[in-house]
Design goal:
single chain; 201 residues; alpha+beta; 3-stranded antiparallel β-sheet; two-stranded antiparallel sheet; 8 helices; 43% helix; 16% strand
Length: 201
């Protein structure tokens, strides 16, 4: 879904200040991705110009099977031009990332790592057959030593605060001593991985 100012109700003055009515606009996946790559208002303006996609009142048809780009192929060019000239105004993404130290290893080390991981995976399945969605990271081209796996900013902040309150120190010793790695292996969730090239661009 995308959200925009209601085209009929707009903003209404009240004794307590102005009230803006917001309308939810249902969109197809490709339209949502275009809004992420460009901006939501641009895509909504395109939807307004297509009567079968919502028209000027942005009425969502839940049975609509075609995207605006299938209805009018020129819309895709308009989005591409907008991305090229204006860039994206995407301000945030729900992301999960972790990192691990990456070390080059020999092929024999790789085989040993894979064998150990296969045994661990088999043991996990035997212990808990329902947890088939849990898997270990396979070492591809090297071995990885996990560091701060799935660390979140809020968790890190809380751990620093709790450490400081218990010991009187400003932060844990391991955080005050910088570490340098020759290479890292970064892991992102699917959405963040898809939008990372956009953020870098």
């Amino acid at each position: 879904m995308l959200m925009t100012e209601d085209p009929q109700l707009g903003t209404t003055p009240t004794p307590f200040g102005p009230v803006t009515f917001i309308q939810i606009v249902g969109v197809c996946l490709e339209e949502l991705q275009s809004a992420q790559q460009w901006n939501g208002l641009g895509v909504i303006d395109l939807i307004k110009s297509v009567p079968t996609a919502g028209g000027p009142w942005l009425i969502t048809d839940m049975r609509r099977g075609e995207t605006i780009f299938e209805i009018d192929p020129e819309m895709k060019e308009a989005v591409d031009d907008g991305i090229a000239t204006e860039g994206s105004n995407l301000s945030g993404v729900s992301a999960r990332c972790s990192y691990s130290k990456y070390e080059a290893s020999t092929s024999s080390d790789q085989e040993e790592d894979e064998e150990v991981e296969q045994k661990e995976s088999k043991a996990k399945k035997e212990k808990c057959p329902s947890s088939s969605n849990q898997s270990t990271d396979a070492a591809r081209g090297g071995s990885r030593i996990s560091r701060h796996s799935s660390m979140s900013v809020s968790h890190d902040r809380q751990s620093r605060m709790s450490f400081a309150s218990e010991t009187g120190a400003s932060e844990p010793a391991e955080l005050s001593q910088p570490k340098f790695f020759d290479s890292l292996h970064l892991t992102f969730n699917y959405e963040a991985g898809n939008l990372l090239p956009l953020a870098l661009r």
